[in-house]
TrEMBL record:
Cell location: Nucleus
Entry EC no(s): 2.1.1.56
Residue span(s) of domain MRNA cap 0 methyltransferase: 111-425
Name of the protein in its database record: mRNA cap guanine-N(7) methyltransferase
Family: Belongs to the class I-like SAM-binding methyltransferase superfamily. mRNA cap 0 methyltransferase family.
One MF term in the entry's GO annotations: mRNA 5'-cap (guanine-N7-)-methyltransferase activity
Catalytic activity as recorded in UniProt: a 5'-end (5'-triphosphoguanosine)-ribonucleoside in mRNA + S-adenosyl-L-methionine = a 5'-end (N(7)-methyl 5'-triphosphoguanosine)-ribonucleoside in mRNA + S-adenosyl-L-homocysteine
Keywords for the protein's UniProt record, in alphabetical order: Methyltransferase, mRNA capping, mRNA processing, Nucleus, RNA-binding, S-adenosyl-L-methionine, Transferase
Highest taxon, organism lineage: Eukaryota
One of the record's GO cellular component terms: nucleus
Binding-site positions, S-adenosyl-L-methionine: 124, 152, 174, 211, 234, 239
Length: 439
C-alpha cells in the first residue's frame, strides 16, 4: 500500500510545487491579422509541474519525506471506497444533466460562455479528427468499417463530428435518460436531412441508457462481439472517480471491446490544477464570474477516490465531480490494456493544433474578436478580462490589428482541462485465462 501512499503524496507535492510558481506571464506573437491570442503563461507553469509528475513519477515518489505526516493509512483509503460504493452520486449527476434545458442556437449564442463552449467543441473536433484519421490510415482495406463508442455522450453534442469523420457505426451511452432522448432526436433529425444530401450514408447507431460506472455495457451491445476502433469519453470520466469500483468499471467499458491499436480518447479536469489553485487561493473554493469550484476534501490529503468538489459553470454544469489523480488514472488504464499515448492540457493542445485547425476555429466562432466589431459587445465584463489582448496588440508592430481570443475569465476555466489518449495493446494469455498486457 506504500504505492498508494506515495501516489497520493506525489499529488500533494505537485500541488505545493505548482503553488510556489511565479504567475506573471508573457504573450505569444503571431503574424496574421486574425491572430490568436493566448492567456498569460502562468498556466504553463502549472502544466510543467504536471508533466514532471506524469513523466517521472518515480522521481517524485522518491523525494525526501518532509511531508510524511500527510501520508494516508491504507485502511482510510479502503474505507472510503467501501463506504462510497454503496451509495453513489451518479443519480445526482444524472438528475442534474436531465434537468438542463435544451437551448436553441439563438439562446446559446447569447451565453456568457459561448466562446468557451465553442472553443471546447473545437478541441473535441480536433482530437476526434486526429485519431479517426490515424485509424483510417491504419486500415488496410479502403472504406473498412469504423466503429465508435461515445461513452457519456450527453445530448449528442458530437454526433456531427462522427458524421464528418465518416464512421460506420456509433454506440451512444449515458446515464441521463433525458439527454439520451435528445441525442436520439438529434440523430433522427440528422438522418432525415442526410437522406436529402448526396453524401455517403449516415452511420448506424444504438443507444444504451445506464450508469457506465456500474454496468457492463458490452452485454447491452447489439452485438457483444463487436470490435471497436475508438472510444471517446468527453468531459465525463471524472464522475467515476467517486470510487475505485466505479473507475474500474468505466475503464472496463472503455477498453474491453477496443481492438488492439484502437484508441480511447477524452477530456477531463486536471487534478493538479484544481488542487494548486485552491492552495494558491488559500481556500477550498476558487473561480471567477464564469466558473466556481468548491472543494469538499482536505486539499492537503486528497483521497485517491471520492475527492469530491462542486463545479459550477455558468448554467451548464453545477454538480459534484471527483478529482482524478492522473498517475492512478494511468495505472488503472494499464490493467485494462490501455497504454497512455499522451495527455495535453487544453492550452498546449490548442498551441499544437491552432494552425491546422485555424479554419475550423473561425467557422465554429471559437474565439472572440478583439477589439469587438462595430455594433457588438464583448462577453467579458471584468475590468481585466481583455488586458492580455490589449497588451498583445500594443506590442504588435502592425498597430491596430484585430485578434481572436477568450476573455481571461474563460481562459481560467478552459485551462483547467486536459485531453488524454490511450491505445489498446495486444494481449497474451496467462495460464489462468486472464489477459496479459505488456505495458
Ligand atoms: C459534461 S457532459 C458531457 C457530454 C458529452 N460527452 C459532451 O462532450 O458533450 C457529462 C455527461 O456524462 C454523463 N455521465 C456522468 N456520469 C455518468 C455515468 N456514471 N454513466 C454514464 N454517463 C454519465 C452525464 O449524464 C453527462 O451527459
Amino acid at each position: 500500500m506504500t504505492e498508494i501512499n506515495d501516489l497520493e503524496q506525489a499529488l500533494v507535492l505537485a500541488a505545493a510545487d505548482a503553488d510556489s510558481r511565479n504567475y506573471e506571464g508573457s504573450f505569444e506573437e503571431s503574424e496574421e491579422t486574425n491572430v490568436l491570442c493566448k492567456e498569460p503563461a502562468f498556466y504553463k507553469n502549472v502544466n510543467e509541474v504536471k508533466n514532471i509528475v506524469i513523466e517521472k513519477p518515480a522521481t517524485i515518489n522518491n523525494r525526501p519525506q518532509e511531508n510524511a505526516p500527510l501520508k494516508r493509512k491504507r485502511e482510510t483509503v479502503e474505507e472510503n471506497i467501501e463506504a462510497k460504493s454503496t451509495k453513489t452520486y451518479a443519480n445526482v449527476v444524472a438528475n442534474h444533466y436531465n434537468q438542463i434545458e435544451e437551448k436553441g442556437l439563438d439562446e446559446r449564442c447569447k451565453s456568457r460562455i459561448v466562446h468557451l463552449r465553442n472553443f471546447h467543441n473545437w478541441i473535441k473536433s480536433m482530437l476526434i479528427n486526429e485519431y479517426l484519421t490515424k485509424i483510417k490510415y491504419s486500415k488496410k482495406q479502403h472504406n473498412a468499417p469504423i466503429r465508435v463508442h461515445d461513452m457519456c455522450c450527453g445530448k449528442g453534442g458530437d454526433l456531427l463530428k462522427w458524421k464528418k469523420g465518416g464512421i460506420t457505426h456509433l454506440i451512444c451511452s449515458d446515464i441521463a435518460s433525458v439527454s439520451l432522448e435528445q441525442c436520439k432526436a438529434r440523430y433522427k433529425d440528422m438522418k432525415n436531412r442526410s437522406g436529402r444530401d448526396r453524401g455517403p450514408p449516415l452511420y448506424t447507431i444504438e443507444f444504451i441508457a445506464g450508469d457506465c460506472g456500474r454496468m457492463r455495457l458490452r452485454e447491452k451491445y447489439s452485438d457483444p462481439s463487436m470490435k471497436l476502433d475508438l472510444v471517446s469519453c468527453q468531459f465525463a470520466f471524472h464522475y467515476s472517480f467517486e470510487s475505485l469500483p466505479q473507475a474500474e468499471c468505466m475503464f472496463r467499458n472503455a477498453a474491453e471491446c477496443l481492438q488492439p491499436g484502437g484508441y480511447f480518447i477524452g477530456t477531463m479536469p486536471d487534478a493538479y490544477d484544481l488542487v494548486a489553485r485552491a492552495k494558491r487561493n488559500d481556500s477550498n473554493s476558487f473561480g471567477n464570474n464564469v466558473f466556481q469550484v468548491s472543494i469538499d476534501f482536505d486539499i492537503n490529503k486528497p483521497p485517491l477516490f471520492g475527492s469530491k468538489y462542486n463545479f459550477h459553470l455558468d448554467g451548464v454544469v453545477d454538480c459534484p465531480e471527483f478529482l482524478v489523480y492522473f498517475p492512478m488514472f494511468v495505472k488503472l488504464a494499464k490493467k485494462f490494456g490501455l497504454k497512455l499515448v499522451k495527455a495535453e492540457k487544453f492550452y498546449d493542445y490548442f498551441e499544437k493544433m491552432r494552425e491546422e485547425g485555424r479554419h475550423l476555429l473561425n467557422n465554429m466562432r471559437s474565439l472572440e474578436a478583439y477589439p469587438p466589431p462595430e455594433n457588438s459587445t464583448l462577453v467579458g465584463t471584468e475590468p481585466d478580462d481583455y488586458n492580455h489582448a490589449v497588451e498583445f496588440i500594443r506590442k504588435d508592430p502592425r498597430g491596430n490589428i484585430r485578434i481572436g481570443t477568450l476573455s481571461k475569465s474563460e481562459w481560467e476555466a478552459s485551462s483547467l482541462y486536459t485531453t488524454f489518449v490511450f491505445e489498446k495493446v495486444k494481449n497474451t494469455w496467462n495460464t489462468d485465462g486472464t489477459p496479459l498486457y505488456d505495458i
